């Protein structure tokens, strides 16, 4: 089978080690990562210059699409692949479900081994624990604020007196909603909510 992206013939049963290298800015260079991935024996390396916070990473997309069951995806360091720990875990789980192994050179993780899989399950548990802690803290903060009489959300556009005035104007059928909105300096939808 000829792989157009990589540009050479793949034999049936031949598994590839594909590398992915990324730097965050255009003035950084990939040399350190490329050297490590070549030393690891990668058959092809996808290179990207894009921030990890950016969802658009076309080379990563091409890289992931080129992987077949039995292949291995290699990165120099974990943070080169995922935008966050949760994103990293999602990508690796998708790789695992597709029959693709994952290797991180710096952290010495290889999901084709039992130890490597265990480490990723630990990372997954830590990410879930962190997410739950954030949710608990948020709920506790909201409860404490409500107990002090503060309510979340935007500040009301109109105070009680202005709301009563708007209701009186809306009851007068000679005025249009648009005119009332201009007078009160609010949108029509705000008047309808009142």
Give the helix/strand layout:
Blueprint (H helix, E strand, L loop, with lengths): L1 E2 L4 E2 L7 E7 L7 H10 L3 E6 L8 H9 L5 E4 L9 H13 L3 E4 L4 E2 L3 H34 L12 H12 L5 H8 L3 H6 L1
Parallel strand pairs: 3-4, 3-5, 5-6
Antiparallel strand pairs: 1-2, 6-7
Helix pairs in contact: 3-4
Characteristics:
two-stranded antiparallel sheet; elongated; Rossmann fold; five-stranded mixed sheet; 194 residues; 2 domains; 7 helices; single chain; disordered N terminus; alpha/beta
Largest sheet, if any? 5 strands, mixed
Uncertain segments: 1-12
Q: Which fold does the CATH topology of the largest domain refer to?
A: Rossmann fold
Assembly of the depicted chains: single chain
Measured by DSSP, the beta-strand proportion falls in: 5-15%
Overall CATH class of the largest domain: Alpha Beta
What is the total domain count? 2
Helix segment tally: 7
Helix-strand sequence: EEEHEHEHEEHHHH
User: Would you tell me the structural class of the helices and strands?
Assistant: alpha/beta
Helical fraction equals 40-55%
CATH architecture of the largest domain: 3-Layer(aba) Sandwich
CATH fourth-tier homologous superfamily of the largest domain:
Resolvase, N-terminal catalytic domain
What is the spatial order of strands in the main beta sheet? Answer: 4-3-5-6-7
Task: Write a structural description.
It is a single chain. The strands form two sheets. A five-stranded mixed beta sheet has the order 4-3-5-6-7, with helices on both faces. A two-stranded antiparallel sheet has the order 1-2. It folds into two domains: 2-125, Resolvase, N-terminal catalytic domain (Rossmann fold, 3-Layer(aba) Sandwich), CATH 3.40.50.1390; 160-193. The protein has helices at residues 31-40, 58-66, 85-97, 114-147, 160-171, 177-184, 188-193, and strands spanning 2-3, 8-9, 17-23, 44-49, 72-75, 101-104, 109-110. 47% of the residues lie in helices and 14% in strands. The relative contact order is 0.09. The termini are far apart. Mean pLDDT is 85; it is low at 1-12. With 194 residues, the chain is of the alpha/beta class. The chain is built from seven helices and seven strands; from the N terminus they run βββαβαβαββαααα. The radius of gyration is 28 Å and the shape is elongated.
């Amino acid at each position: 089978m000829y792989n157009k992206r990589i540009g050479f013939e793949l034999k049936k049963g031949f598994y590839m080690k594909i590398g992915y290298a990324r730097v965050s800015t255009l003035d950084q260079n990939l040399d350190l990562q490329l050297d490590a991935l070549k030393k690891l024996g990668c058959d092809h390396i996808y290179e990207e210059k894009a921030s990890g916070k950016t969802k658009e990473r076309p080379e990563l997309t091409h890289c992931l699409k080129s992987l077949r069951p039995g292949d291995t995806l290699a990165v120099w360091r974990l943070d080169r692949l995922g935008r966050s720990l949760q994103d990293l875990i999602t990508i690796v789980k998708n790789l695992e479900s597709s029959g693709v192994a994952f290797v991180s050179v710096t952290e010495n993780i290889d999901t084709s081994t039992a130890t490597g899989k265990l480490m990723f399950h630990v990372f997954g548990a830590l990410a879930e624990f962190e997410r739950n802690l954030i949710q608990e803290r948020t709920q506790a903060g909201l409860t404490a604020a409500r107990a002090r009489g503060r309510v979340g959300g935007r500040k009301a556009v109109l105070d009680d007196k202005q709301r009563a005035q708007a209701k009186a104007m809306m009851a007068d059928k000679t005025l249009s909603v648009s005119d009332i909105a201009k007078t009160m300096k609010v949108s029509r939808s705000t008047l309808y909510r009142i």
